[in-house]
Automatic annotation (TrEMBL):
Keyword Cell division on entry: no
Keywords: Membrane, Signal, Transmembrane, Transmembrane helix
PANTHER family xrefs: L-ALA--D-GLU ENDOPEPTIDASE, PEPTIDASE-RELATED
SUPFAM superfamilies xref list: Duplicated hybrid motif
Transmembrane segments: 42-64
Name of the protein described by the UniProt record: M23 family metallopeptidase
Domain M23ase beta-sheet core: 189-284
Amino acid sequence: MARKQKRTNTKSFWHRIRFKYKLSFFNESTLEEVWSFRLSQLSAFAMLGLFAFLLIVFTSLIIIKTPIRNYLPGYLDVEVRKEIMQNALRADSLERMIQIQSLYLNNVAGILSGTMPIDSIREIDSLARVNPDYEIPRSKEETKFVKEFEEAEKYNLAVLDPNPVPTDGVFFYKPVNGVVSAHYDANIRHYGVDLVAAPKESVLATLDGTVIFAGFDPNSGNVIQVQHKNGFLSIYKHNELLLKEVGDRVVAGEAVALVGNTGKLSTGPHLHFELWYKGSPVNPEEYIAF
């Protein structure tokens, strides 16, 4: 009995919502039917849902395609975002230029106050190279020792170096004043020395040369490489700021970067310095007294 009553109520519900009503419009003067239409509750709900959907779509199109979207909170025009990005890039460039200018002014102030020696090409060249025509006079004891040594080693083929590195008359400038924290070790592919130094201290070119690379590496940070005339290549890694660009000529002792802590392989402010000769790494401590 209850199940039969439930079926009856269900049929009655569907009958009610599908039952059509007639809506007519009459002329008041002549009582003539002008317009009429039939509508059920189900069709009325469907029409209302369709109208709501169309209204939402129309409103969304107006917001997306017209400038009204700029007045919505949290929404910015593409041009505004582009301008913000350009301003951020300009601010970063200005900050870098301010750092370079500040370093330049500090150097000028040091020269004017007398705390820093004047840097010139003639003075640096005189420090970087030795006059090959000048020889220190030998004492009698030294002359005797050299003669005996040459006689003893005359037939010793083990002392001959098939690939000599030409360092006679060349003075390597120390790139930075710091403490050696890691030495050269080719077995672990550590082709240089790590020098712990104060942050933003000047990194100096070890010899005269030309900058052949100046850029950023994910592992080594800001890197600058200088090619020298005598076949040497010096590499300076983990810098905070690079002061030279590719193609710039540098002289020995000239600042090319600032000590930093950039790159994944850096654990603190220091300089990783490498020295290569004709494509092969050499131990910098054999040429520079750190």
